[in-house]
């Protein structure tokens, strides 16, 4: 029995190493990697979470936890944090980063 168990465990381990693991808390229709949700948004900024508590609002963009008014880089500032998206000012234009991509179908 033990001789059969060792090769079986080896196969299971090899299979598990090749399998693609997905975060179980991510909805099935979204990718596990965060992405910027707006076509107008710069590809270099990724909104991954919005935290709204009694203590204030914070957004996690590119791994940095920021509040409104703080800078992401030299010329990009977080303007406003809303429940589903944030507004940033970059190069004198306002852009929207959303948590979930909007789903729009073209009219036929």
UniProtKB/TrEMBL annotation:
UniProt keywords, alphabetically: Signal
Signal sequence, start to end: 1-19
Source domain of life: Bacteria
Protein name: MSHA biogenesis protein MshK
Species name: Methylomonas rivi
Lineage: Bacteria, Pseudomonadati, Pseudomonadota, Gammaproteobacteria, Methylococcales
């Amino acid at each position: 029995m033990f001789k059969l168990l060792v090769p079986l465990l080896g196969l299971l381990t090899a299979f598990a190493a090749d399998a693609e693991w997905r975060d179980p808390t991510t909805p099935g229709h979204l990718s596990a990697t965060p992405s910027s949700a707006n076509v107008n948004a710069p590809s270099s900024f990724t909104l991954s979470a919005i935290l709204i508590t009694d203590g204030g609002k914070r957004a996690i963009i590119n791994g940095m936890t920021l509040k409104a008014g703080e800078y992401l880089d030299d010329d990009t500032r977080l303007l406003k944090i809303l429940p589903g998206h944030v507004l940033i000012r970059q190069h004198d234009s306002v852009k929207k980063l959303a948590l979930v991509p909007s789903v729009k179908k073209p009219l036929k």
